[in-house]
Amino acid sequence: MAFLKILFYLIVLILVLFLAYHTTRILGRGMSLKQRSAGMQVLDQMAVGRDSFLLVVKVQEEILLLGVSPAGITRLEKLDAYETLEPAEAPPDFVAVLTSQLKARKNRDDEGKRGGRGKQ
Fold first, then answer.
1. Rounded Cα gap, residues 15 and 29, in angstroms
2. 14-48 as b/e, with b when 16 or more CB fall inside 10 Å?
């Protein structure tokens, strides 16, 4: 009997997680559709603090640099042009770096053992 209770609670938990996942996907799609506008577009953004960031926004034909903070939104500069740059090179993968370092260390240890045996 206890097994059936545990199984029932497990099924309810899986159902709740499944419904929560699909609800957030539906709400996320709805939010992205509401943010689209024909006359306004966010070209770039950069966080400069916990609650502050910079935005480059194109409003109709004007390009503006905006500062956003808890105190409000401030127009910092009107830009003549804005060129989107390629993102910086991604840092190397941690696993790949660790693997290469371990292989290099193992090779040095193997060479040291071989060299030590030849001297004896």
1. 21
2. eeeeeeeeeeeeeeeeeeeeeeeeeeeeeeeeeee
Instruction: Tell me whether residue 43 is in a domain.
Output: yes
- Whether residues 51 and 80 share a domain: the answer is yes
Q: How far apart are the first and last CA of the chain?
A: 72
Contact 53, 46 (CB under 8 A): yes
Taking only the tens place, the pLDDT of each residue in 49-107 is 899 999 999 988 899 999 999 999 999 999 998 887 776 677 778 888 899 999 999 88
Would the pTM count as exceeding 0.70?
no
Instruction: Let me know: does 75 contact 68? Beta carbons within 8 Å.
Output: no
Euclidean distance between CA atoms 64 and 68, whole angstroms: 12
Displacement of CA 45 from its chain's centroid (Å): 13
Residues spanned by the domain of 78: 38-85
Same structural domain, 42 and 74 = yes
